[in-house]
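Dear colleague,

Following up on yesterday's call, I've attached the two folding results inline so they're easy to grep. Please treat them as preliminary; we haven't cross-checked anything against experimental data yet. The first protein's sequence and structure tokens come first.
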Amino acid sequence: MTEIILIILGISLLLYVLLGGADFGGGILELISRGKASGIVSRAIAPVWEANHMWLILVVVILFVGFPSVYSTVLTALHIPVLLVLIGIILRGSAFTFRHYDIEEETPKAIYSSIFRYSSLFTTFFLGVTTGGIILGDITMDYTQGFYAVYLNPWLNWFSFSLGIFVVILFAFLATIYTLGETKEKPHVERFTRIATYLIIALVVAGALVFATAELEGHPLFFEFYHSIPSMICVVLATLALPLLWINLKRNNRQMLRLIAGFQTTMIVLGWFAIQFPVLVKVNDGVDITVQSAIAPKQTQLQLLIALIVGVLVVFPYMGYLYKTFKFGDKTVDEQKAN
């Protein structure tokens, strides 16, 4: 029963990275392209951006009900970056909506576009910072150590910041690859291909920076990856996919690009999970919070599992229908509007 709940949790987290992450990356892509991608980004994410937050809600609900000590620890020790993420999500969503439906004047649209772009960057960065705080192991349960040690030190470090930068680049990369499949206009294709090329290089550099800052902070991340066979396999597979990604980028093979980018991202998430498991939250001066120590009582697990199964049977078909309707239909009319 616990294993099934964990699998649903993992799938929800992965889908949020792949789909919600690309939505956040759309705003970052607008920043990188200096607004030239606005029309295509708006058309690409408008039908699905709200629905993609469902995966984050599902992750939060599973943690709250199924792993309450994880939920309480993370939202206590890391409440500052989590709060900043929530503020960013609200600003981003509001600005995107107002930009689309407000009066057709340049000044309001420019303001909303700026808020949307910078809040996308801001939110993504602090999602990575929060993840870094969970991984690094500087969270303390001793609340007598003072405000800095309890609420700032777990995330205010070079490792968390470097992971924030990595996530920003990753989400922008996903958005660029997905957006390539939304247009056939040659200038747009050339622009996004060029941006994707730069982002691939930036991802490799940022990944190396994450490992370097982990060593700087005293966290043996490279050692953990090296001594975890599943993690090493994930790293090798993600690396081997780079030449394929490069070749298909030059050929503008859109479907393969999406598959390869999704595969590489999945390998990154699985590689991290492999070195982390069964630990869910690393604690500095106490016992790490593991799956077995954090899991709710059996009766609670059963009720949660029933709710999740019903939810999966209801939500997944509707999400599939949503994407089939808005993402795989005729794009000709929408593309003319975007241009």
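Below is the second protein, in the same order (sequence, then structure):
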Amino acid sequence: MKRSVSFVLAAILPLILFPWFVPTPANQLDFWLMWLVAMFILALPMVYAEVALAYRSGNEPLSGIQKLTREADVSAIWRGSIWFGVLVALTVSAYLISWSSTALLPTLTQLGIEGVPTFAVMLGLMVIAVILSMLGSITAVVGLICAIVGLGMTLVNGIADFSLQMTPVTLAEWGRAVMLALVSVGAGSGLYWFANAGNGIDYTSKPSATKAVLPIWAVQLIAGGVALVVASVKTSAPSDMMQIANVITAIGSVCLASALIYYARQILSTRFGRVLAILIALLLGLLLVVIPGAILLMLLVILVSVSVLMLSIFTGWLMKISHLRKSMNFSSEGFYNIWRIAIRILVPLAVLVGLAGWLAGWVN
């Protein structure tokens, strides 16, 4: 995965994943303000952390975390954050496949293919996604194109409702905003670490992490804003145009799933070899995709929370200060101190409160 794919992922993840966490109705101003806060205090520090770890280690996540834990002289248990990241990528892929299967069923019925169980479509699409992952990260580009076309057709076929309204702020709403910010930017998955490791960068010249992070974060914000507009679109009734839009978006979702599986396979192959990595990714994908959607989403929220907590604690509390400062190469010491406060205190606290809010909302 090349560095340029970072921008593709930064765009496609919010465009496709936003509907998972958007409240109903979608025009709740307080929710989107909380999402912006979460993007500043959670998503931005975490992207900085992943890029800094890539710069410091000079290796992909699994090999890099081994090097970094030895440098920090800490327990190997912290290497588990990478395995949680792999599970995050595969769980997101499974949820994408689950949604795509539901979206494609009406089309299959119209084509005369009736009586096909939903789980059979899910399993078939998961196998297809694993096969497509052999093509590498190019499937993310195809997925982005499909997502843009599908969402564009949705906008043309509906009317956007921009009448924002304030609603009572609740802990559950904060939990939804936090998980939206984390999942839609791929925080804790190791994607941006993987995308920025190697690539011929001369790490001895101390490149600034800001030059890599801020453009990615800006794309995430813009894509999130577009997804917000699409989420507010209201359609009067189902139409052929909307059905075509759903099919195109479903194809984009399968392509995104294959790109995430590609990332998971690359990490797994470092430990198990290419062939076994494919089999493990396929087996885990098939097991995850048959889990009911609500439970799968809860599993994703827990995995993301644990992964982000482990990475934030490792980078903020366990790594040597001098190592991260050199890796980030901020223009001033003040910027580094702000990031350090965020990654050590704000990120763990916000994630824990957000997880509590999500669990409270899920129980209720």
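For the second protein, one point worth flagging: The chain is about 75% helix and 0% strand.

Best wishes,
A.L.
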